[in-house]
Amino acid sequence: MKRVVITGIGVKSAIGNTKEVFWENICAGKHGIRLIDTFDTSDFDIKVAALDNDFNSEEYMDKKEARRTDRYCQLAVAAALDAMKDCGCELKEAYDPYRVGVIVGSGIGGLHTWEAEHNKYLEKGPKRVSVFFIPSMIANMASGMISIRTGLKGANFCPVTACASSNHALGEAFHKIRYGLLDACVAGGAEACITKFSAAGFNNMTALTKSDDPDRASIPFDKERSGFVMGEGAGILILEELEHAKARGAKIYAEIVGYGATGDAYHITSPDPGAGAAAKCLEFAVQDAGLQMTDIDYINAHGTSTPLNERVETSAIKQAFGDHASKLMVSSTKSMTGHMLGAAGAVEGIVTALALRDGIVPPTVGYQVPDEDCDLDCVPNQARKADIHYALSNSLGFGGHNATICFKKYED
């Protein structure tokens, strides 16, 4: 089996559109949650979101292409181009382009386009619906456009598993390189669905917080948590086979060593309160890495700030790790980025890789009121220096989709 390393990072989020600014804000415990100003919330219970207001698509594509491309896809392409630049080479020249894949997930896809074109259909009739509606809306277009822009011709697809989408993308890319099917892969996820229609749907299913205080809105593991905060953005990682990366002198952020995936077989939105499948997912990722459960130092939790999620995730961690659960650091960076849905796993994978590189465990910010049902070390409010060697990034998606990635501090 081949070793797989991370050599490039691109991120778009409410707390930064470069990896440097993003990581600086993570370490400082700075969140990007603010009052929604992109649509009128007068008729809505929800008032806050984690919007990426600083993103400018025209830095990455001309106006004509931007008009024909949904926001989620713009974010994905931008993050991918940044990651390609960061990795220090043109992958289609360094490798056989058929040996470099693009695996980019999205939970929902082009919802901005869907909403705008549906409104146009209702107001102006079917002939006014854009010819670009379908290609702009479909969730796989991000991976398609990244391939078109970069000339990479290897395995190209889009995992769609709700909030676990981009963790599945990382895991599938990792396995393809590990078992020799690819030499490198552009992997991650993107999401942009902070719209009226989407907000109404998530709100009516009581998934979102009704707090209008940005500092007390996304508060994972806090007893007063009341629902998640919608976030948007993209995270893209360049994964490469280690020997190829070393041969070209690539910088290496961290190593991916394990991947677990399970299904709850329980409910369309709620996680299984028994937490058995979520626990097995953690175990499978550690087993896939050839490690013992006691080797893990840190978990970047799914941690959505919903009453049920943290109870279930805490139970899963205790089932999987036993006595070692009390020794783990377990933080949720959704307290800063909001819940980025299909992009969450990849962005949290970036956090986990940088945490291993720098020996800094990110905090769970906004934490004030302890919850006896979530009695893990959630690294409250301040980042912590720690010599960590192995870490997990955990994702749970509507439909019962679970995915966990195991990362290792890179050592030659």
Written description of the protein model:
The protein is of the alpha/beta class and 412 residues long. It folds into two domains: 244 residues, 3-Layer(aba) Sandwich (Peroxisomal Thiolase, Chain A, domain 1); 151 residues, Thiolase/Chalcone synthase (Peroxisomal Thiolase, Chain A, domain 1, 3-Layer(aba) Sandwich), CATH 3.40.47.10. The protein is built from 14 helices and 14 strands. It has a ten-stranded mixed β-sheet with strand order 5-4-6-7-1-8-14-13-9-10, with helices on both faces. A hairpin with a 3-residue loop joins strand 13 and strand 14. Helix 11 packs across helix 12. The longest helix has 17 residues. It is globular. The two termini are 16 Å apart. The mean pLDDT is 98. This is 3-oxoacyl-[acyl-carrier-protein] synthase 2. It holds the Pfam family Ketoacyl-synt_C. It is an enzyme of class 2 (transferase). Pathway: Lipid metabolism; fatty acid biosynthesis. Belongs to the thiolase-like superfamily. Beta-ketoacyl-ACP synthases family.
